[in-house]
Specification:
heterodimer, A: mainly alpha, 9 helices, B: alpha+beta
Chain lengths: 184, 161
């Protein structure tokens, strides 16, 4: 399988088939990196998804390539979408197991209850984001880049090719729109 | 070009109104932009209310990836953790690939890990794959046990059982 740096460089050179390969590749790498890291964590410890995306970037993309802004943008755009899928899959799986007759944990504490609320919210957010993307794809991508890949407004603005001021305006509107949609 | 001003969308009105802090001025601005259109005004006001109520919504990163290692206590995800090791595949009836094998399904869970039904596409036969639980995989004794099992299975097959 081609590596991430190689695919990013093919995208830079305008190879359209390379762009299609990027998402599954980044998705796969992120999942494996998460699995490898989680094996070394204590049970119940959490990994911050956005930190994982940044870590993956440093590990998977060559230093030479990192210096080109576009490569960074392509990588983070794919990584944001991949991380969204990974988190949604995990949240669905946990919900299925929770409702599927598995033994409940004994020591339910506040932190765990909060964590399961977050999981529920994540599925609602995923649906709301899909709805937003139908009418307003650029705002949905902005939310993905910021929320799932941990980019700042300025970084996300560069990836999307809009000004930082525009991105801030988009962000505020998208946040209100999504909050309303989820609250319904 | 017509002299009549083009009606602004709810989004445009929201963008301007959100930057007006004084409630009176904001209300006056909404009167001006949505005067004859109560539905538009309701839409903008609703969005403004959610903007104010959103708090830290989406501002904090999702902390979703939970460790399942050593998982007798924490392991609600234990039987599913193996899925994270798979590579996506388009093959039919396949949850993903693990090395050369196409994983078909999860058969069971033993004391040492999980057992998966898989296809060996090269020889076109079904194989069972035993995955050691992460807390055992680091343990030499467990690895030896698996090797003993593997060689016992191989013996059976060669004798035609």
């Amino acid at each position: 399988m081609a590596d991430v740096t190689q695919i990013l460089s093919q995208i830079e050179q305008g190879d359209p088939s390379a762009a299609e390969q990027l998402l599954p590749l980044v998705y796969d790498k992120l999942r494996k990196l998460a699995a490898a890291k989680l094996v070394n964590e204590k049970p119940g410890q959490t990994l911050q998804a956005t930190a994982l995306v940044h870590d993956a970037f440093l590990r998977l993309v060559d230093v030479d390539c990192q210096q080109k802004w576009n490569s960074r943008g392509h990588f983070f755009a794919a990584a944001a979408e991949a991380m969204r899928r990974i988190l949604v899959e995990r949240a669905r799986r946990k919900r299925r197991i929770r409702h599927g007759g598995e033994l409940a944990r004994q020591d339910l504490n506040k932190a765990e209850i909060e964590a399961s609320d977050v999981k529920h919210d994540l599925l609602a957010l995923d649906e709301a984001l899909t709805a937003l993307a139908e009418n307003d794809p650029i705002k949905a991508r902005l939310v993905e880049l910021r929320f799932f890949a941990g980019m700042t407004v300025e970084e996300a603005a560069d990836v999307l090719g809009v000004s930082a001021i525009t991105a801030k305006r988009y962000w505020r509107y998208a946040r209100a729109w999504l909050h309303r949609r989820i609250g319904e | 070009m017509s002299d009549k001003p083009v009606n602004k969308t709810a989004e445009q009105i929201f963008n301007s109104a959100a930057n007006i802090d004084s409630p009176d001025e904001r209300s006056a601005y909404l009167d001006q932009e949505c005067g004859s259109n109560p539905a538009l005004r309701a839409e903008v006001e609703e969005l403004l209310r959610h903007d104010a109520d959103a708090g830290s919504f989406l501002e904090k990163p999702p902390q979703e990836l939970e460790a399942t290692a050593g998982s007798e206590l924490s392991g609600i995800d234990y039987d599913e953790a193996w899925r994270d090791l798979l590579t996506l595949s388009d093959a039919k009836d396949c949850s993903g690939t693990l090395g050369p094998y196409e994983i078909v399904e999860h058969i069971g869970r033993g004391g040492m890990g999980v057992v998966l039904r898989a296809r060996d596409p090269k020889l076109n036969r079904i194989v069972a794959i035993k995955l050691l639980a992460p807390e055992l995989a680091a343990n030499t004794m467990s690895l030896t046990q698996v090797e003993v099992q593997a060689s016992a299975t191989q013996d059976l097959r060669q004798r035609g059982h």
